[in-house]
Design goal:
Among the domains are: 92 residues, Cadherins (Immunoglobulin-like, Sandwich), CATH 2.60.40.60; 101 residues, Immunoglobulin-like (Sandwich); 109 residues, Immunoglobulin-like (Sandwich); 95 residues, Immunoglobulin-like (Sandwich); 98 residues, Sandwich (Immunoglobulin-like), CATH 2.60.40.60. The chain is 11% helix and 32% strand. It has a 4-stranded mixed β-sheet with strand order 1-7-6-3, with no helix packed on it. A 4-stranded mixed β-sheet has the order 9-16-15-12, with no helix packed on it. The radius of gyration is 65 Å and the shape is elongated. The protein starts with 17 loop residues before the first strand and ends with a helix. One of its GO terms (molecular function) is calcium ion binding. This is Cadherin-15. It is a single-pass type I membrane protein.
């Protein structure tokens, strides 16, 4: 089929735009009649659709479906809707479309039914005073809801009222307000109220009005001025930091602005800077104050020259004027002044232990009132330790009691006291002086060993050392460093012990030779570094324990003893009670056995008059064998009063050096038959001596060392051949056995 060209639309079915005026009051009003060329025997049915018909707003337009007439059924408002676009339809009676739908446009014609409206009721503007003519201040503007393309919205502006001056003008088209003439002065008139108007129809239509308020901004065109040329004031002497009075000024510029704020300067009359002047921010007046105490006896009046000017410099347009000056006269009034301690605090040094009644200083004050005759008295205001006494008239300070150190009243070695000085004026005034007394340290304490009892392993090397410490109640430099030394009175201690410095307060005690287990009392000499140094001989109780491989103590009893510090009081009492009970039982058993032995020995002595003790040899040194034949002299037992009538008994090795002898001396035997009784009584006295630990066994008077791994000397004779014996160990027994080692080794 051939392609069809564009269908030709008949002229009768094309509807041109229809114009209708807004606010048309005659309704219903015929707008147009539409008609289709395709008439049917039964006729044509017309209809329209769109805004105003079947869309919001409803019911504005309608159509006669048989004649095609379109009617306006309500008043139109162009400001709400300036045009309507509808669609027109033509159908036969069966509802079949006869024509394609066509557009129907209805245009609402504007009328001048809206007044102009200013955007705000009051417009505000600012302009500096003295502004040149033509200086624009602000712009007022209005709107009109009518069609802007017509004169209905063509606005014109004008000023209806601004007072008699006529200082401002307005642009009729733009609404811009500008200055019209010179002479704006804030001090004369600071605000202008203008009534402005806007009219449409180019000024001939509807009108509206608004207010335009214009504020003049201040400039510094007026200098401050004093209200009078002279001011008089009075102030008390010795008053500092107080206000004396005010000087008053006036400034025409805006109060509170930088152009109004004044600045004062003292030009003359105060060379020492005793006064200061500041500005009161609320009143802009000058406040004169005293910054340094004034003395009536030195100067009783001042005459000051004060100037004033603004913080901000004057504008160039302001008229020239000289600087404002004023004279301020200040009189200093005499008052009673308190005494003054010229040296406060007073610092002195006093040796520790200064005897009572010793003068240490004279602490006095002076009275500034030289024109008045006054007497000063003194008293101790604060003396916490009651160490001082003070002469109330001369101010001499003496010691009331011995000054000791340390004391809870000392602060870093200083004792603080307060002295009160008072005059006899009416009313009396007083002053307080601080007396700081440095208590100089005296070396009056020797260092103390801490702690005095220790435990160590008796094997040289690992475990055979102790870290010893000491304390000193004296303060530096009379304390550390400490010097630790084995007592020079016991040089034999150096065979088994050594002591070396560890630091300023500690030393290391070391074992030089293997020692048997048991308690040892080592006298140590401790010396401090004071001037002169103090030294003291002190005992260090050392318990030598059984050593393990790692140098630690393996003795359970000794470990329990060293841990006894952690035993509670109840447990300690139980242990002590059990120990006492065991000692009592052991003592009873020992006494019974001792009685039996005594009876047996007496019988032996009666049977044989020969004293076998004449053959006892002294092998104490274990040295020369048969060459050492010095027998023990039995006469020392028979007649001890002939050999050592006043000699002290030998000290027990396990007793402290400081332990004394029994208070009651033992009676010497009168005959050889009582020697056994003499020995038993000595043993019993040693057991009951309260100054040493109790022992229920024989006392050890000389310890010969632990057992040797070597065989008895008899093995030298009894061995079959020299090759079966190893005699190298004899060289370890000392110089007396080295010869045997050389012969048989």
């Amino acid at each position: 089929r051939q392609h069809e060209g564009p269908r030709r639309v008949k002229r009768a079915w094309v509807i041109p735009p229809i114009s209708v005026s807004e606010n048309h009051k005659r309704i219903p009003h015929l707008l147009v009649q539409i008609k289709s060329d395709k008439q049917q025997p039964g006729g044509v049915i017309y209809s329209i659709k769109g805004p105003g018909v079947d869309e919001e707003p409803l019911g504005i337009f309608s159509i006669d479906k048989f004649s095609g007439k379109v009617f306006l059924n309500a008043m139109l408002d162009r400001e709400e809707n300036d045009r309507y676009r509808l669609r027109a339809f033509a159908l036969d009676l069966g509802g079949v479309t006869l024509e394609d739908p066509t557009d129907l446009e209805i245009i609402v014609v504007d009328q001048n039914d809206n007044r102009p409206l200013f955007r705000q009721d009051v417009f505000t503007g600012h302009v500096v005073e003295g502004a040149e003519p033509g200086t624009c201040v602000m712009t007022v503007d209005a709107t009109d809801a009518d069609d802007p393309d017509t004169d209905n919205a063509a606005l014109r502006y004008s000023i209806l009222d601004q007072g008699a001056a006529g200082m401002f003008s307005i642009n009729a088209t733009t609404g811009e307000i500008c200055t019209a003439r010179p002479g704006l002065d804030r001090e004369t008139m600071g605000m202008y109220n203008l009534t402005v108007q806007a009219a449409d129809m180019s000024g001939d239509g509807l009108t509206t009005t608004a207010m335009a308020v214009i504020y003049l901004e201040d400039i510094n065109d007026n200098p401050p001025e004093f209200t009078k040329e002279e001011f008089s004031m009075e102030v008390k002497e010795q008053a500092a930091g107080v206000d004396v009075g005010k000087v008053f000024v006036h400034d025409k510029d805006l109060a509170g602005s930088p152009s109004w704020l004044a600045k004062f300067t003292i030009l003359e009359g105060d060379p020492e800077g005793a006064f200061a002047i500041r500005t009161d921010p609320h009143t802009n007046d000058g406040v004169l104050s005293v910054v340094k105490p004034l003395d009536h006896e030195v100067r009783d009046r001042f005459e000051l020259t004060v100037s004033v000017q603004n913080e901000r410099p004057l504008e160039a347009s302001a008229p020239a004027s000289p600087r404002a000056l004023a004279t301020v006269r200040v009189r200093v009034r005499d008052v009673n002044e308190a005494p003054v301690f010229r040296e406060n605090p007073r610092r002195i040094s006093v040796l520790e232990g200064t005897p009572p009644g010793t003068p240490i200083t004279t602490y006095t004050a002076s009275d500034p009132d030289t024109h008045q005759i006054q007497t000063l008295t003194y008293a101790l205001l604060y003396d916490p330790a009651d160490w001082l006494q003070l002469d109330p008239h001369a101010g001499t300070v003496r010691t009331k009691r011995e000054l000791l150190h340390p004391s809870a009243f000392l602060q870093g070695g200083w004792y603080i006291a307060l002295v009160l000085a008072r005059d006899d004026a009416e009313p009396p005034l007083s002053a307080t002086g601080t007396l700081s007394i440095e208590i100089l340290e005296v070396n009056d304490h020797a260092p103390q060993l801490q702690p005095p009892a220790r435990v160590l392993c008796g094997r040289p090397g690992r475990g055979g050392t102790l870290l010893l410490g000491a304390t000193d109640d004296d303060r530096p430099p009379h304390g550390a460093p400490f010097h630790f030394q084995l007592s020079p009175q016991h040089p034999q201690l150096a065979r088994n012990w050594s002591i070396a410095r560890f630091n300023v307060t500690h030393a290391v005690l070391a074992v030089l030779a293997e020692l048997p287990e048991g308690p040892y009392s080592l006298p140590l000499l401790l010396r401090d570094s004071g001037t002169p140094p103090r030294e003291q001989l002190q005992l260090l109780n050392v318990s030598v324990c059984h050593c393990g491989r790692d140098g630690t103590c393996l003795d359970g009893v000794l470990a329990a003893a060293t841990a006894g510090a952690g035993i509670t009081l109840g447990a300690l009492l139980i242990i002590l009670g059990s120990t006492i009970l065991l000692l009592v039982l052991a003592g009873l058993g020992a006494a019974r056995v001792r009685g039996r032995r005594r009876a047996l020995r007496k019988g032996l002595l009666q049977r044989s008059r020969d004293d076998m003790r004449d053959n006892i040899l002294n092998y104490d040194e274990q040295g020369g064998g048969e060459e050492d034949q010095d027998a023990y002299d039995i006469n020392q037992l028979r007649h001890p009063e002939l050999f050592s009538p006043r000699a002290k008994p030998p000290l027990r090795r396990d007793a402290p050096l400081s332990s004394g002898t029994p208070l009651a001396p033992r009676k010497l035997p009168s005959s050889p038959s009582d020697i056994e009784d003499f020995i038993n009584e000595g043993l019993e006295a040693a057991d009951s001596d309260p100054s040493v630990p109790p022992y229920d066994t024989a006392l050890i008077y000389d310890y010969e060392g632990s057992g040797s791994v070597a065989s008895p000397l008899s093995s030298i004779v009894s061995s079959l051949t020299d090759e079966d014996q190893d005699y190298d160990y004899l060289s370890e027994w000392g110089p007396r056995f080295r010869r045997l080692a050389d012969l048989y080794g």
